[in-house]
Amino acid sequence: MSVVAATRGLSRAVWILIVARAVNKIGAFTxxxxxxxxxxxxxxxxxxTxxxxxxFGAATIPSRLLxxxxxxxxxxxxxxxxxxxxxxxxxxxxxxxxxxxxxxxATVLLGLAFEIYEPPSQAMIADVTEPEDRPAAYGLYSAALxxxxxxxxxxxxxxSHWDLRWLFVADAITCLLCATLVALALPADVxxxxxxxxxxxxxSAVSPWRDRRLLLLLASGTVxxxxxMQLVIGLPLxxxxxxxxxxxxxxxxxxxxVTLIAAQRLLRLQNLDDFRSIAIGYVLLATGLLASAFAHTxxxxxxxxxxWSLGDLFLLTxxxxxxxxxxxxxxxxxxxxxxxxxxxxxxTIAPLTVTxxxxxxxxxxxxxxxxxxxxxxxxxxxxxxxxxxxx
Length: 391
Prior knowledge:
The structure is a single chain. The protein contains 16 helices and no strands. It has helices at residues 3-6, 12-27, 31-40, 46-73, 76-96, 100-114, 118-127, 134-159, 165-185, 200-205, 212-241, 248-262, 274-293, 298-326, 332-379, 381-389.
């Protein structure tokens, strides 16, 4: 089965969202250079740069919550456009700034707008896709982002030879192009109020923060997101520790993106519900991490990347289908926003766990520990099935 066959039947809106997000991701190569720009262009000290980047990261958490609230109350399409325009304004502000304080304010605004896009786009995919087709839709969405991320790195390497401010101008342009595509091509927003007969007591009872199933899914998703971010952060450090070429990380990420795209048909396997798929994903992830723990050559790391990328394929998609499946229609944006907090938390935790484990037990200890956690989560899936099915 080809990738096209695996995604046959997906609606036009899903394809528009995927194309828009991929184009935007290709342009989103400014973030790795943000610290460099603050230090070089605005003469910020190392301490100041670290604080500003930490504030940016913290701002992305309310950004995602805001995206979920607006998606349910203001509309999916309007919220996506608002987030993209907000990012564009922030990027242009950074590019045009002449003082550090101006660049800092623009960076905070960028953080507040940065994650607004995700909840409405994920919610709209669920809105227009049948439950059995959602793994394929979310899988294609993730694969497109992975492929665009590799291309973004190549473009960043090319443009970074010029004035770094042009990176932010280029990113702003892609945001505005995507906002235009979304505004013109996506279906109009539909009001999603809760039914009139539902009283206030009943509405508070189904508040996302009161749904224990969602909070359990958030905890599980945070563990996975932390392992994922440990790979992003720890892999280059591991290659450095092993004396392998710096370019190896780029090669591995490219292989990972190709794997996510080529393996889309696995998401259409019959007799695999969310929990079985997640268990398989964690087994593949644990196997890849175990191989990474004992790898000493780039070839072995590449083979390990194929395994953990296959695991990521199942996990990235099935966690989203679970989160969207838990949510009532009128609260889907908020549910996905709360679940998405797992990535903000993981981005905060992962640098600490990676550096501590590398310092105390080296690369082998880092990846063995990560593999053990993944294996435990695979074994626990029957327990999660019982808890998440309860109402």
